Amino acid sequence: MDWSALRVSLWLGTGTILVLLPLGIWFGRVLAYRHFRGKLLVEALVTIPLILPPTVLGFYLLVTFGARSPLGRAFQAVIGHPLPFSFEGLLFASAIANIPFVVQPIQRGFEAISPDVRDAAACCGLSPWQRFLRIELPLAWPSVLTAAILTFAHTLGEFGVVLMVGGNLPGETRTLSIAIYDRMQAFDDRSAGIMAATLLVVATITLMVTTILSRQVNSRRG
Amino acid sequence: MRSHRTCVHVLLAIVLCLAWPAQSTAQKPPTIAAAANLNFVLKEVANAFAAARGTRVDLVFGASGTLTRQIRDGAPFELFLSADEDFPNQLNAAGLTRDAGAVYAIGRLVVFAPKGSPLTVDERLEGLARLVKAGGVSRFAIANPAVAPYGEAAEAVLRKRGVWDAIRPRLVLGDTIAQAAQFATTGNAVGGLIAYSLVVAPDFGDRGTYAVIPDADYPPLRQRMVLLKRASPTATQFYQYVLSDAARAMFRKYGYAVPQ
Question: What topology does CATH give the domain A3-221?
Fold first, then answer.
């Protein structure tokens, strides 16, 4: 078992949630309640990371932020190292890859709140912020948790992007999924097996928790 | 509401687990990029180095071509041990290395057949040629010639023995020579052309039979290493250690020839 790889994976999962959740709540709510021109396109763009091969994201990140690109060099001048092959770079890539996993459940969560409830809250004289914090967010909370859990689990399982922009650096960008690949290549089937089983257990728990939460949302809706 | 609260607790527990002391970045050992054929020997060299000097190095293995690309894109490696001379020379020409570096070992290729395979191995690949002709080759593993020098060497051997065209649709390409070895030992491949250093490693175990391909059958796998511009004193010491008599003996043990 590669503990530093597990730690990198857990940090990456938590970091992605922390970066993405506030944005996801804001954006999911906008998509749920607002109607604007080009909404269809925006929704498609939000979903794109779901169907695009991770290699496409990896390719663009390397070309845009690699040490050979002007943007990459500018980044290097500011933060001291290029964005790819660093934990920050992984976090950035992971945040982009997880946008649909955050925005979609949260959008559904806000959509499920009946307009009557929101109207009633507005009639009671609550300010928009109070309505959001005291009525909408508590009602949408299971969806927010689902988004967080899905993001965490998906980050733990991410492989393609990490392989391309991570560089397999121990303690920095070697996540658990990369460590499994690495151990396989070293004919260390035992370690690979332990780590694979760990990920399998985590994935199963995640899906069970998500199912419980989505049942809560549905029962409330019905 | 109860299960809901449990979920929050589970999440909190996960976050608390993260409170493990993070590794201090101040004294991070230098990261060294190495071709995948070095998987076993270099670990032994690094352990001996750590025992002798009291400092550790972190090893990252990959295909030489992939590692070269990563170095050009800014990966923070301090020393690069390639499986050939071309890739280090490219980095040198691009001004990313301290100097032209040194050849530290010359690699060898073996033809390998896992236990139970219909392939009989011999140094002139006559068994393979027969099996190809009889249509008995399901899959044959080599490293990807585009990114792995051992793959290029394998291609040269297969061409020289006149089986390249016939075997081509049957090839499975590993990203690295280690992955090719993985394919050759498990799965459906009847065998493969892989690095000698991998099949003689103790961790590899007794997985099948092999024959060493004569050196004259492929351009020599002269393996060069280069210190990158960012190299720390520890990386420089390790570079020198790789050229030391102690390390050379280890390379010989793993089937490499070492330059005079």
Answer: MetI-like fold (1.10.3720)
